[in-house]
Amino acid sequence: MLRDALLDLILERGYDSITVQDITDHANLGRATFYLHFKDKEELLFSSLKETVDELAQKLTQENRTGMVNGTNPPSLIAFRHAAENRQLFRVLLTAQAGGTIISRLRTLIADLVEAQVSLMVSADVLPIPLTIIGQHAAGSLIALLTWWLETDSGYTPEQMAQMMNRLNAQPLIMSLMSNSSPKSG
């Protein structure tokens, strides 16, 4: 209830203007209840954001173990579906300054998963681009598209967004590998 109240208020008025009293009033709870669980609104926000990103990390890691390489559940589809299920929280996460640390953690997680997936398909020494760059690009691209998708309410489904993400990122990489591009430098 506290988390939902906080998110409603952030989206309505912005994070900085909200007080603990506003949150407890919106949740119809007493301040004592708030302070039993959290020391301040920052802790409530961080806890809520961390919980959601941890759930996504668990889904992505679990799917990676079971064979993401077959393409039936690419990381982008898992991420878009999770964001759709937690739309309000992800909107706050991707647009709030307080979410910076958590977004950095999410970007690292996604980059690591992409690197692991690519290295299962091809040896790093034949890649035309360093594996780290591929992972960072895919992670940044996914976070940018998630942010735009959630901010604009574009009407695209998670499946459509994941398909477009794949066309923008995975297909060019595969074509690059097939064309025997010049070897990476550095």
Salient structural properties:
186 residues; mainly alpha; Arc Repressor Mutant, subunit A; Tetracycline Repressor, domain 2; 75% helix; elongated
Question: Would you give an account of this structure?
Answer:
The chain is mainly alpha-helical. The chain folds into two domains: 1-39, Homeodomain-like (Arc Repressor Mutant, subunit A), CATH 1.10.10; 42-178, Tetracycline Repressor, domain 2. The protein is 75% helix and 0% strand. The protein has helices at 2-13, 20-27, 31-37, 41-67, 75-85, 87-95, 100-121, 131-152, 158-178. α1 (2-13) packs across α2 (20-27) and α5 (75-85) runs antiparallel to α9. The longest helix has 27 residues, at 41-67. It is elongated and about 65 Å long.
Report a brief summary of the structure.
This protein is mostly helical. It has helices at residues 2-13, 20-27, 31-37, 41-67, 75-85, 87-95, 100-121, 131-152, 158-178. The longest helix is centred in the first third of the chain and has 27 residues, at 41-67.
